[in-house]
Amino acid sequence: MTSIGLSTGLSTHVSTQASTAAKRKVLISGASIAGPALAYWLNRSGFAVTVVEKAGALRDGGYPIDVRGTAIEVVRRMGILPRLRDAHIDSRRCTFLDADGSEVASLSPHAVAGGVEGRDLEVRRGDLAAALYAVVRDDVEFLFDDSIDTLDQYGQGVDVTFHSGRRRTFDLVVGADGMHSHTRESLFGPEEQFHRHLGYCFAIFTMPNTFGLSREVVLWNTPGKAAALYAVGDNDELHAFLTFHQPEPPFGALRSPDAQRDLVATVFAGAGWEVPGMVDAMRDADDLFFDTAGQIRMPHWSKGRVALVGDAAYAPSFLTGQGSSLALVGAYMLANALAANRDHTAAFAAYERGARGFVAMNQALVDNGGATLFPTTVRALEQRNTMLRDLVTMPSATVRPAYSALALPEFAPLPMNS
User: Fold this and answer.
1) Structurally, how many domains does the chain consist of?
2) Which residues contact residue 307 at a Cβ distance below 8 angstroms, ignoring those fewer than 6 apart?
3) How would residue 28 be classed by pLDDT, with cut points 50, 70 and 90?
4) Domain co-membership, 183 together with 83
5) Do the beta carbons of residue 97 and residue 380 sit within 8 Å?
6) Which among 46, 254, 313, 370 could bridge 308 via Cys, Cβ 3.0 to 4.6 Å?
7) How far, rounded to the nearest angstrom, does the alpha carbon of residue 360 sit from its chain's CA centroid?
8) pLDDT recorded at residue 373
9) Residues 350-361: what's their mean pLDDT?
10) Residue 35 in domain
């Protein structure tokens, strides 16, 4: 595997040390974004890495996600930036509509979301996952269609019992298993104590592109409700989003797809534009994903020999557009800390010191993200529309400092006593 971002001499030094020392064994739960990224960097540092994923295979396709700022440097150092550039969606227009379907404003996506045109990336989630998997699959053990049942920590390691019944012992375990992390719940307790509900629910699904949309997003709003159609390239399929204000999380619906469909249909009953057809398509969709917009905020991201990374530790919510970027940067920072510190306690502390400020800045983006995209009152919607019209007449750079707030350290060589 080609080493990107390190000198050839350092790469040789790392691999030589790794081969002459007993490799530390790490289990990563989750094979979406943070998990494979962490696996790459840990493998590069001489760890023996196993990734367990409850899905039967890598998940392909999926809705578009953004990779921006500091995260661009992570994928560059991994050597996958050219592949992701080839997969770049390059949306060209974002059109906002009023309740009756009339146009409010049509803007470049960068004017709305921020970022740097020509440098930042927008790719399908599955394309990013596939690129990450491609650079680790030959060097890392993957256990698909399995998951962690129990973790039993003791002085020198972690005994893991898998759902399949197999049992293994690892030096360290990392939960990269998403916002509703089973690893986090088993170690730290119920999600509710770390979940900050942001007041919205959303449903995502695919439907036929019968609208002639191409490389664009169309967003319809009324107070507290929004519907969006997202055309990736010239595809004959659209990603559809139905988002609505919900002051308290509908915990019952989170566990029942039928209840989710009923809730969304009830909320959008009588809505205009193309919403009735979208609700019908949602009823028939076999890929419906429903969740609340929320963040995970934790005082610590590790306990003993187990740490969390990505959404499991600090989900920022889709309102920030930074979930995948935080996952990539967090994986790099955790692996770097483990490479630099033989003692896991010191490594986990260094990981938090290095990444927490960046995480906090990006989570704070939500404080205006929701209000901008999904106003909940007539007045707020009017103010948002006025702001959008001003952006049309006076285009301005909206690069958000949070995206690039962290300067990546050079990746640490293994300590000599590894």
Assistant:
1) 2
2) 172, 173, 174, 175, 301, 313, 334, 348, 351
3) very high
4) yes
5) no
6) 313
7) 15
8) 77
9) 97
10) yes
Task: Identify the domain containing residue 387 by its residue range.
Answer: 199-293+370-393
Give percent of the chain with pLDDT exceeding 90.
72
The CA-atom distances, in angstroms, between 272 and each of 100, 226, 378 are 6, 11, 16
Q: Are 241 and 227 in contact (CB under 8 A)?
A: yes
Q: Are 180 and 168 in contact (CB under 8 A)?
A: no
Stated as kind and residue range, the H or E segment containing 261 is helix 257-267
In a domain, 300, yes or no: yes
Above 90 in pLDDT, residue 206? yes
| Cβ-count burial 113-137 (b if 16+ within 10 Å, e if not) | bbbeeeebbbbbbbbbbbbbbebbe
Number of H-type helices and E-type strands within the chain: 15, 18
Q: How confident is the model at residue 319 (pLDDT cuts 50, 70, 90)?
A: confident
Per DSSP, which regions of 54-136 are E strands?
64-67, 93-97, 103-107, 121-124
Same domain, 214 and 260: yes
Written as six digits, the tokens of 50 are 């196993």
Q: What is the pLDDT of residue 273?
A: 95
Q: Is the pLDDT of residue 15 over 50?
A: no
- Write the CA distances from 231 to 85, 178, 238, integer angstroms: 18, 26, 5
- How many C-beta atoms lie closer than 10 Å to residue 280's C-beta? 12
Mean pLDDT of the chain: 88
The distance from CA 380 to its chain's CA centroid, rounded to whole angstroms, is: 28
Q: Are 134 and 256 within 8 A, CB to CB?
A: no
The length of the chain in residues reads 418
**361 shares a domain with 383:** no
pLDDT at 370: 57
Q: Are residues 152 and 228 in the same domain?
A: no
**pLDDT tens profile 320-344:** 889 999 999 999 999 999 999 999 9
Rounded mean pLDDT, 100-118: 76
Classify the C-alpha dihedral 369-67-202-360 as positive or negative: negative
Q: Are 80 and 131 in contact (CB under 8 A)?
A: yes
Q: For residue 388, what pLDDT band results from cuts at 50, 70 and 90? A: confident
Q: Percent of the chain beyond pLDDT 70?
A: 89
Q: Is residue 279 part of a domain?
A: yes
Q: Could you tell me if 230 and 261 lie in one domain?
A: yes
Q: Are residues 171 and 222 in the same domain?
A: no
Stated pTM of the model: 0.88
Task: Give 368: exposed, middle or buried? Use CB within 10 Å, 0-12, 13-18, 19+.
Answer: exposed
